User: What shape does this take?
Amino acid sequence: MRTDALLSQYGYCTRREAALWLKAGRIRKADGTPIRRAAEHVQPDEVTVDGAPVEFPHGLYVALHKPVGYTCSHREEGLLVYDLLPPRWLRRSKGINTIGRLDKETSGLLLITDDGQFLHALTAPGKKVEKVYHFTTSAPIPAEAAELFAAGTLTLNGESSPCLPARLETEGPCAGRLTLHEGRYHQVRRMLAAVGAPVLTLHRLTIGPLSLEELQLAPGEWAPVDPTLFA
Ligand code: URA
Assistant: This one.
């Protein structure tokens, strides 16, 4: 593709600004040769901008440690998870989206991509990617909850099919971990409310093979991820 089109499609600058960037020698081939002509055809992975390779030349795949108080939306008022990412990513011609959502009051691991197929593959009902949540509750978790969740017989209010079997591991009377293989609306909160233990805090620890602990991300931090981990 043309160099000016590449710079614009990957969110660096407008095609008009590209002419100035090229003139200033900011755009180079990997071997350091400056690219001077806007019309020069290049591949995204053979270009550097200000000395750094073009970001995510073949699709953007990122893990974010979502803090409490941020919304997974492009449109709502207030703090949005996209505010935590470099603004350039939002200017890329392929839009970025979260893979599933975490509630505003939930923290933890969230994936973001511009790859619609990848997003669909991870959220399709048949995919059943495992997700582990840590929670605290405002009332003790009843002893029979683990068996009920594991049986796959709990049908949430307003739903026609029961939740898939889920693993509950308690860590004291009002805290624990819940492992799910699906992602219904407010699922963890609704499952725990259904057994009389409303959620106080909720945090997602893992999605499939990815864990926040291993990624070592502080709240608000992000890191690139390898999408083939989910193949
Ligand atoms: N379940 C919930 O209730 N909320 C989330 O954010 C994620 C799972």
Remarks:
- The CA atoms of residues 136 and 201 lie 5 Å apart.
- The helical segments are 3-9, 15-23, 87-91, 116-123, 145-151, 187-194, 212-215.
